[in-house]
Specification:
There is one protein chain. The protein is α+β, with helices and mostly antiparallel strands. Among the domains are: 112 residues, Orthogonal Bundle (Helicase, Ruva Protein, domain 3), CATH 1.10.8.350; 88 residues, Lysozyme (Orthogonal Bundle), CATH 1.10.530. 46% of the residues lie in helices and 8% in strands. The protein has 14 helices and nine strands. The radius of gyration is 22 Å and the shape is globular.
Length: 321
């Protein structure tokens, strides 16, 4: 197994454009000069942009569109984690048990959480997205809203093509430039992607084992604590100061219990000195969350998403006895 981390360009910031935005053609021309200065082969750049003639209207639409309705937590969770997705997760565990258990042992991350992320991101690889990554990133780099971030991601994507880590035909994903079984942005790929099968590249687009190991590597390096819980459901006393119910307030389990917080399950085995926070998602139960919940937030900074992720993981594991 090998990490695929390299190149000083990763730490560099792209130069900012002047206040007056360039035309699309000027933007591409300047990008080409910059990319070639970083070592991108001219043929690689030209092939990457051969079919990219203008910003993508579809990408811009998704970038501007906001959800019209705010879902309650349980409504959101049940829309993302239905019976079918749970059953698929259990089947994938049976199918890939040996590899998953090996990855779990190496990284200290439960197999069911690895599967849960895969399941939520791409429905276990069935829906990886069909937006060409270069087109998406070029569109968003040209758009002034977050141009600096996407400009950097675009250059990293070109380096991936230049190194032969991915081909143009398979470099597709969701509208914002994430791709592969685990939906990594280019910068995430450089930081966390693994060549689990030792094939010479971290192929998260076609090699499920590489993608699963990369998910585990992300969680481990972002602070996953083996053999610790992620969250438990609790009942909050009316006397509890509501200002304490937020992810940034941390107390030990014992301190929360002394304030009248009551777990809805047997908590005798829960270490009383374990740091914890309380959250109460709209339309859902109150939760006592632990450091592993906060690690999962580094994957997706949404309490709703992480709540659904943990629920799916528990349902997959429950099916495993």
């Amino acid at each position: 197994m090998a990490f695929l981390l390299s190149l000083g360009f990763f730490l560099q910031s792209p130069p900012a454009f002047s206040d007056q935005a360039p035309s699309w053609n000027d933007f591409i021309a300047r990008l080409r000069v910059e990319a070639l200065a970083e070592g991108i082969q001219p043929a690689v750049f030209d092939t990457a942009f051969e079919q990219v003639h203008a910003p993508s209207p579809r990408v811009l639409h998704f970038d501007k569109t906001q959800p019209e309705k705010r879902l309650g937590f349980l409504e959101y969770r049940d829309s993302r984690v239905d019976h079918y997705r749970i059953q698929m997760g259990r089947q994938e565990y049976q199918r890939r048990r040996e590899v998953l258990n090996d990855i779990s042992r190496q990284f200290g991350v439960p197999a069911c959480f690895i599967l849960s992320i895969w399941g939520l991101e791409t429905s276990y690889g069935h829906f990886k997205g069909n937006f060409p990554v270069i087109q998406s990133l070029a569109t968003l780099a040209y758009n002034p809203r977050r141009s600096h971030f996407f400009h950097q991601e675009l250059l990293l994507a070109l380096h991936m093509l230049n190194e032969g880590q991915v081909s143009m035909s398979e470099f597709k994903g969701e509208w914002a430039g994430a791709s592969g079984h685990c939906q990594f942005m280019p910068s995430t790929w450089f930081k966390y992607a693994l060549d689990y099968d030792n094939t010479g590249r971290a192929d998260i687009w076609n090699n499920v084992n590489d993608a699963l190991a990369s998910i585990a590597n992300f969680l481990k390096r972002n602070g996953w604590h083996p053999n610790e819980p992620w969250a438990i459901q609790v009942l909050l006393p009316e006397s509890l100061d509501s200002n304490l119910v937020k992810i940034s307030t941390t107390k030990t389990v014992e301190e929360w219990l002394q304030l009248g917080v009551q777990p809805t399950i047997n908590s005798e085995s829960l270490p009383k000195n374990l740091p914890a926070s309380l959250i109460h998602p709209e339309g859902g139960p109150a939760l006592m969350v632990f450091d592993n919940f906060k690690t999962l937030l580094k994957w997706n900074r949404s309490n709703y998403y992480v709540g659904a992720l943990g629920y799916l993981a528990e349902e997959i594991c429950q099916g495993e006895g």
